[in-house]
């Protein structure tokens, strides 16, 4: 026991030393507020503005600067709301975000700018005339060429140089907007990241291959590398390595696969660049560049698959879409068509075979808004987001502002010492992140070999959890245990505090999700309730959306995995579930007086209120990044990235 006391003291000393100072990669003032035990910062890393083709052709005119202003809680005019002649609708986020990133599609930003700027060569090309006069037709033509054919259009000239030149202006504006809104003062009020989306589609299945690229600082390549430049993920990684990581200076980048529920299985297909089974080098490169995955956004949740009679975890039905692909082919989802939990299991199997886990993902969520409104996740005031849903120009109040199957999206939460680019980027790199479906639930998750059973009652529990264990996103070292030890986990969650005009919803329960790889190679999952009460009697009146029953403001538990087998690879993550509340669609249906028993109450645009697929009740939630255990000698560590954080 003495050696563990010594290890605890050493761990505490090392942790304090590592987190006591910030080595910035760019000039800025040190943050006045800095917590070595880290703080939760809420943000949105998936935001589209007027420079994304699918946003601009639906009527969005929001600039990158306006998007960052909106994230900071400023009042912003969004135009048009219903058509070109509609005046600005002034919008304001009820609670500002701590960070955000405009992620306009790298593909076609030159063409979009060209078609909207009379003085740019190519403005009068027939493709631009189509864009300005028949935007929906341009949407399909331009997207087909870029996302499926991986090609620019004819208006771009020889070697696409006209469009590449035109792309410099919007890319410059995106960077300047991030620089303008990044708070470099000691107040550290807001962090704006520079980034973009790399957007491609697998032609045969319509599967989404989309990824968001996040840069550590303002040192970025001259132009974003697009799917047209390299229509495969490894080509993106190679370009970032050559143009950023290996370049002079402090350029650093990571890549976040998003919306995998619509990837038709292509996001986690286990294949390498040559279409053959993945090999170690490819797996290691993916693991280096893609530490996170987007588990929730406007176009549904990607946590896990649910089908009655097939899967037992009913909470997996949460925001599950009816299709498995971004192209809209009528193919229903299956367990292996892009769900993250299945990928986590496949990652452990690949690690057993290759020595590296390419799917060792931390979790985030975001909105994927196409209105330039980062953080607009309120169920009680859903704006619609426009990404594959109802275009902004077609919104006719009081109808539903988006397709029934879509939702307001979620938030990314990063545990960092301070609100600076470097601190937040380091949190992403080490996967100390979690996702929420919108509410600002505060959630923590740790694992160790000898946590005290009464750790929840100790005032220094977080300090002790760090000192003798690991946080979400980390690996629990097998060699730190004694024979017969079982891992013990500390889980904490606190309900969304809400705002002065809207109180948060109490928590219902706190769960551990465990996935393990048996010696036989079979994969198994377990869902364990560790705190709260799934049968607490809480409910919601769907006619008024008034919530009923009690819940919990805070939940804390120390859970021991009594079924632990030291010879099996395993991952664990925590899921916090709120009491039931009205979904965004039901809130609007109820506010409009819809009574499905009386057809006279079903106004124009409200027909979906009474559709069979309408789910009026939702249970919002949060998902922590996993913690992994690998048997001794089970895998070789991956190489560290240039400029990687601790």
What is the top-level CATH class of the domain at 35-375 and 410-438?
Alpha Beta
Q: Say how many strands there are.
A: 29
Query: CATH topology of the domain at 35-375 and 410-438, what is it called?
Result: TIM Barrel
Main sheet properties? 11 strands, mixed
Chain-averaged pLDDT = 92
Radius of gyration equals 24 Å
Secondary structure: helix percent: 10-25%
Query: Count of helices?
Result: 13
Q: Which shape, going by the Cα principal axes?
A: globular
SS-derived structural category: alpha+beta
User: In percent, how much strand structure appears in the residues?
Assistant: 15-25%
Q: List the quaternary state of the chains.
A: single chain
Give me the CATH superfamily of the domain at 35-375 and 410-438: Metal-dependent hydrolases
Summarize the structure.
The protein has 646 residues and is α+β, with helices and mostly antiparallel strands. Helix content is 22%, strand content 21%. The protein is globular.
């Amino acid at each position: 026991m003495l050696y563990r006391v010594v290890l605890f003291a050493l761990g505490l000393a090392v942790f304090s030393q590592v987190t006591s100072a910030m080595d910035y990669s760019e000039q800025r003032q040190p943050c006045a507020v800095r917590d070595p035990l880290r703080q939760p910062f809420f943000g949105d890393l998936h935001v589209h503005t007027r420079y994304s083709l699918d946003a601009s052709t639906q009527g969005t005119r929001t600039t990158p600067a306006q998007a960052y202003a909106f994230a900071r809680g400023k009042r912003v005019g969004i135009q048009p709301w219903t058509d070109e002649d509609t005046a600005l609708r002034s919008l304001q986020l009820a609670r500002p975000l701590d960070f955000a990133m405009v992620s306009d599609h790298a593909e076609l930003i030159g063409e979009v700018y060209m078609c909207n700027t009379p003085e740019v060569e190519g403005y009068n090309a027939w493709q631009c005339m189509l864009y300005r006069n028949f935007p929906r037709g341009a949407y399909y033509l331009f997207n087909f060429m870029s996302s499926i054919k991986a090609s620019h259009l004819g208006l771009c000239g020889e070697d696409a140089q006209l469009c590449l030149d035109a792309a410099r202006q919007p890319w410059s504006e995106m960077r300047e907007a991030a620089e303008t809104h990044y708070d470099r003062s000691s107040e550290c009020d807001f962090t704006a990241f520079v980034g973009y989306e790399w957007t491609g589609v697998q032609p045969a299945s319509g599967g989404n291959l989309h990824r968001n690229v996040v840069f550590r600082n303002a040192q970025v390549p001259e132009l974003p590398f697009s799917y047209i430049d390299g229509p495969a993920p490894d080509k993106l990684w190679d370009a970032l390595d050559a143009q950023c990581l290996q370049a002079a200076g402090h350029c650093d980048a990571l890549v976040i696969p998003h919306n995998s529920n619509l990837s038709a299985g292509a996001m986690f297909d286990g294949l390498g660049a040559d279409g053959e089974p993945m090999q170690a080098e490819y797996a290691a490169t993916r693991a280096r560049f893609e530490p996170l995955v987007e588990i929730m956004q406007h176009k549904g949740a990607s946590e896990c698959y649910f089908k009655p009679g097939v899967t037992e975890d009913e909470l997996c039905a949460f925001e599950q879409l009816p299709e498995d692909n971004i192209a809209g082919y009528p193919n229903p989802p299956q367990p292996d068509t892009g769900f993250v939990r299945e990928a986590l299991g496949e990652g452990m199997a690949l690690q057993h075979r290759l020595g590296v886990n390419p799917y060792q993902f931390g979790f985030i969520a975001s909105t994927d808004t196409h209105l330039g409104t980062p953080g607009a996740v309120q169920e009680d005031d859903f704006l619609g987001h426009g990404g594959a849903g109802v275009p902004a120009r077609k919104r006719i109040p009081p109808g539903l502002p988006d397709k029934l199957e879509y939702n307001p999206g979620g938030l990314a939460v990063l545990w960092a010492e301070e609100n600076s680019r470097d601190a937040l980027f380091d949190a992403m790199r080490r996967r100390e992140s979690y996702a929420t479906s919108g509410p600002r639930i505060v959630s923590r998750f740790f694992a160790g070999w000898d946590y005290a059973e009464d750790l929840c009652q100790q005032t220094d529990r977080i300090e002790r959890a760090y000192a003798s264990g690991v946080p979400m996103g980390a690996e629990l070292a097998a060699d730190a245990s004694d024979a017969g030890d079982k891992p013990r986990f500390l889980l904490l969650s606190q309900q969304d505090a809400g705002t002065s005009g809207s109180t948060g919803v109490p928590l219902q329960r706190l769960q551990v999700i465990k996935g393990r790889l048996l010696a036989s190679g079979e994969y198994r999952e377990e869902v364990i309730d560790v705190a709260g009460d799934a049968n607490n009697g809480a409910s919601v009146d769907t006619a008024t959306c008034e919530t009923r029953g009690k819940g919990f403001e805070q939940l804390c538990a120390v859970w021991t995995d009594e079924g632990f087998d030291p010879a099996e690879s395993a991952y664990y993550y925590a899921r916090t579930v709120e009491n039931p509340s009205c979904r965004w669609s039901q809130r609007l249906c109820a506010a409009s007086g819809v009574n499905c028993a009386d057809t006279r109450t079903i106004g124009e645009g409200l027909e979906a209120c009474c559709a069979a697929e309408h789910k009026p009740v939702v249970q919002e939630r949060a998902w922590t990044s996993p913690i992994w255990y690998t048997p001794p000698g089970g895998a070789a560590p991956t190489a560290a990235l240039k400029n990687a954080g601790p």
